[in-house]
Amino acid sequence: MDSATLALIVSALSMTATVIGTFVIQRRNMLTAQDQLEAARSHYRLSVKPFLVATRSILPDEEKTAGLAMLTVCLLNTGMGPAIISSFTVYVDDKVVDSTDDQLWINTLKLLSVETVGTNNYHHVVNKGFCINPKESITLLKVKIPGSLENQATVQKSFARSKMVVIYESFYKESWTYDTSGHKQQKETPVLGKVG
Asked: What is the rounded CA–CA span in Å between residue 51 and residue 53?
């Protein structure tokens, strides 16, 4: 083999190594770009993730009516993005409270044997599609009750028999279930074949 042929073979191998090296570098850069894109997507999802929390309080009546207290139940979105309600269910003794929307809390209070006072009470139900904005608190129930400490303790014990289960999602259609009985936030597992 003469030196010209050898030089040609070395040159061809060198070019092949350069092409392979260039391909490897480009492939690594593509993977790095894909990783960066996935990290950005993950960040965007977190930046609009909702997080629901329920609160229940018994405080002195706002109107300072002697002997009365105010029972309030709220749902608060402490997350960074809006919570879009998929379903909202109230249970007493692990049984669904059946009712039309305007009777849900009235029936819940009856099942819990909670005595209310007066007619200036407030009830609100969140339906499918209802949106709770970040840092927004929705008052679900606000009723006057007899204000003795004994009655307040009884109401607290009664409410321990109840729970709300709220299924909600983000704008990215990621879904979570919030169960007030154990204060659980659980991400829903997507159903295969589900559209939307």
From this structure: 7
